[in-house]
Specification:
single chain; 360 residues; alpha+beta; 5 helices; elongated; disordered N terminus
Length: 360
């Protein structure tokens, strides 16, 4: 089936990237879908007017995703982006070699999403037009088969129809509930994907910070040794200056002075590296603050989702009550129809008896 669709589809854009998927069990870690960078392409099916993202690793399709207007491609770093596929219940991540490749893929994703939205709107317009033509066509036979029960009371012009407003209201309520649930699920998935990306960056920064701290300790020890060496050389220079001509030659003094200057330059470079590491610590604290904010947003989304679920339960309860009420009204209406039939039969019988009496 995959080969059959590929024969009808045409590639419109291709790039190479490392493909990842969110772990379906933990929803927290990225799982590499390919060992190396693979080709990721946008395909267009002119017959079905559908856009898809396809990537094949060996003989296996690692990405087979239809692009919908509700999808959003998010750049989480300079070379990494992701989007959620609600139909496959997963989140795809792409790692690019350059920032320019990420930008090109993001722009193409936006263009394809807009094209999919226009295609869906055109399809809906066609469906509405077909529906209008169907309604306008003669339907004498279908009306006779599908019209609600009719009871003649006083003549052929007086008819009793079952109201369909309750069905229309219940259908609209169901569509509204489905839309609320889909919007809540998509927002929650986007926040979870953002949190996963931040946690991944956080783990990398923690490892880099630990390594930097270990280097700082080593550099501090070297700095102390250099300082001791500097003090020792300074003492030797002072001693040489105090003894005058009784010590080494002026050449030795120049060499000691040059060594002292080199050590001071090295100390200055180490101080600058220590300042850079301290600034990285500040960036790490900022990322931790951003992660806390994302966790707070995720909790708010969970609370909102719980509220939506509660509202959905209340709506379902109201819907069930409305259905029970409609069934009860249908039962009473049927009972009234039966009573009217009996009354009509009795009146007809009475009319025939009166007619017989009058003729006598």
């Amino acid at each position: 089936m995959f080969t059959h669709h590929r024969d009808r589809e045409q590639p419109i854009f291709s790039t190479r990237a490392h493909v990842f998927q969110i772990d379906p069990t933990t929803k927290r870690n990225w799982i590499p879908a390919s060992k190396h960078a693979v080709t990721v392409s946008f395909f267009y099916d002119a017959n079905r007017n559908v856009y898809r993202i396809i990537s094949v690793g060996g003989t296996k399709a690692i990405i087979n995703c239809s692009v919908t207007p509700s999808m959003t491609f998010t750049k989480t770093s300079q070379k990494f982006g992701q989007w959620a596929d609600t139909r496959a219940n997963t989140v795809y991540g792409l790692g690019f070699a350059t920032e320019q490749q990420l930008h090109q893929f993001s722009e193409k994703f936006r263009e394809v999403k807009d094209a999919a939205r226009l295609a869906r709107e055109k399809s809906q317009d066609k469906e509405l037009a077909n529906t209008a033509l169907t309604i306008a066509a003669p339907q004498d036979l279908s009306d006779a088969l599908q019209s609600p029960p009719v009871v003649n009371v006083n003549g052929p012009e007086d008819k009793l129809y079952r109201s369909q407003s309750a069905d229309i209201t219940l259908a609209a309520e169901k569509e509204r509930i489905k839309k609320m649930l889909s919007e809540g699920s998509i927002c929650e998935m986007n926040v979870e994907a953002e949190l996963f990306s931040l946690q991944d960056s956080n783990s990398k920064l923690v490892a880099a910070l630990h390594e930097a701290n270990a280097n700082v300790e080593q550099w501090k020890k070297q700095l102390a040794a250099y300082q001791e060496e500097t003090e020792r050389l300074r003492d030797q220079v002072a001693e040489l200056e105090a003894h005058g001509g009784h010590g080494p030659s002026d050449l030795l003094k120049d060499e000691l002075t040059q060594s002292l200057e080199e050590l001071e330059a090295l100390l200055k470079a180490k101080d600058e590296e220590i300042h850079i590491l301290q600034s990285k610590k500040t960036e790490y604290h900022d990322i931790e603050h951003e992660r806390d904010q994302t966790i707070h947003r995720l909790r708010e989304m969970e609370m909102r989702n719980a509220e939506l679920e509660r509202r959905v339960q209340n709506s379902e309860q109201s819907l069930n009550n409305s259905l029970d009420e409609r069934d009860r009204m249908d039962t009473e209406l049927q009972r009234a129809i039966e009573i009217l039939d009996i009354k009509i039969f009795d009146l007809n019988d009475l009319r025939q008896n009166l007619y017989k009496l009058i003729n006598k």
